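Run Basigin through structure prediction, thanks.
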Amino acid sequence: MATGLLVVLVLALLGSESGSGAENKILTTITDDGSKTLLTCTLNDSSAEILGHHWKKGDRVLHEDSLTDSTMKYTIDTDERMGRYFCIFLSDTELRASVDVKGSPKIKAVKKSEHATEGESVVLACKSESFPPVTDWVWYKMSDGGDQVLTNNSQNKFVLSSETKTELHIQNLDLEADPGKYACNGTNAEGTDQAVITLRVRNRLAALWPFLGIVAEVLVLVTIIFIYEKRRKPDEVLDDEDTGSAPLKSSGHHVNNKGENVRQRNAN
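Sure, done. The structure for Basigin is below.
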């Protein structure tokens, strides 16, 4: 037997779902061996004809087969083992027992960091799928001078919690007082755990910087176009004058040619 073996025996008396009133004894065993946990159910009723087995967690079917053994087993990862499981023997009537796999909470932050603008509201959230469920949630702000516990009476903050989730609501964010690290702590009968969330608060004027950047780019572009147009105007005027003088030369040449033709006819 491996070291660290933990065996918990739970004896459950169950009545069939058909309501016949008959009680069937199912022996359940939980064996924790390192990274794996083995669940075992044994039916102590030789008269029952077994047609198959089901393992369920809540309403979700984890495993099913059509074996006729009076013992059924299921292996789970220790890190994800917490919860209430059901071993079900399929017979003329369904025979089942519950197997409660308990452990200390595993608290997770919904988001590890949040960003918001001063004056706005923000919600920091943590969740847990612990078994047994978390019975006590505590929020506090972490600082070098000591952690400050937060309650519904803490200035612009209030807390909403359930067995599986807790939320810290912060209203009218203050640029100086509210940024920092916040911890959510959850406790059940087996232990406690916590997660940390970083809150960053930006100046309300920060949202204008992209707009001001676009305005600056437009102004620079307009200035460049204006300078370019200003510099090319003298060249355009010179071109117009040169173009206008050409018809005069052509016209004079045409008049001179006409006069020579007249003189030639008179000479003849």
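The first strand starts at residue 6 and ends at 15.
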